[in-house]
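Now for today's protein.

===
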Amino acid sequence: MNKNLKRCLEFLAIVVITGIVAISSPFNPWIANAFTEVQEEILNIAYSVREGYLAYVELDGHYGPVVYEFFGLGYLPTDTHLVQFIMETALNFVSILFLYKTAKLYTSNIFAWVAAAAIAIFEWGALTHAGAEEILFFVMSLTCYHVARQLKSGMLSHHTYLLAIDLGLVIFLQPGYAFFWAILILFFAIKFKVDGIDGKGYRTFWFSTIEGWITVAVPMGLYLWYFKNGAAFLQNVVSYNMSNIGSFGEGLKLVLATPWTIAIAVLVIAIIIKVVMNENVADLCIWLGVVICAIIVVALQGENLDSFKVAVKALYIVPVASILSLLDKPLGLKIEERDN
């Protein structure tokens, strides 16, 4: 197939999946959907921002992530929800695109579409809350690709850099979840060393990581300095999140109380079958550990657990793609080869 035609079809497929997801959005101007509680809070913030207040400093109880101001401002240009709807749809488009790109590393293009559609569409409305959990799913989708690429190809400085940016974004979004990204970076630091990376490559890994942190820290630091809300951020966001770690047992029940938990068993089955077929499953075994780590970190969170567990769903793209890959060979399909 012509390369340009292929890319066009891929783009159209992602657009279609995004369009289906967008139907469930309460911001959708063509369908009457009920607003969620968090969306009502965001609209209140939007009105307050219009009156000159800042969410981190002056709103009673509204010390939420920067994203609340971000989505709230989307209401202001037209005094309707259209801009917010466009912002939300664009965010979901990129999330689905990276789910697809991750799935392509494990299965053929056709089944990669199927996997991305399943993750995005199933559990209707999960990606259209327009709150911090939606942004967290977006960041997790990017992280899936950065991790999968390096599991497949070894240390890639640009993906290390982007993974560090993901960590920085989560610190400003929902600090309690940053432990997961910190563990990922530490894991790769150990893995690359054990794999025998040379000194220059290892220094590049750490330089890329530091560059990623600086890329986020500088603009966010300027934001907090300019609006003089750095102290409020540390006290009411970072400190508050870190001091509200919940009961692991109760959190685990909530995180596992979702149909997507079956993806863990699916991944184990895929690993066993691929071992019998003499395929290399090292990356899949590591991914199983990544999923377990994410579940533990999310289960420890004290607030918003029921909605934030949607972020873990992005990690299930690899189990779904892996089990679908078992159909590739019988159907004469194959994984697309790519350069690093």
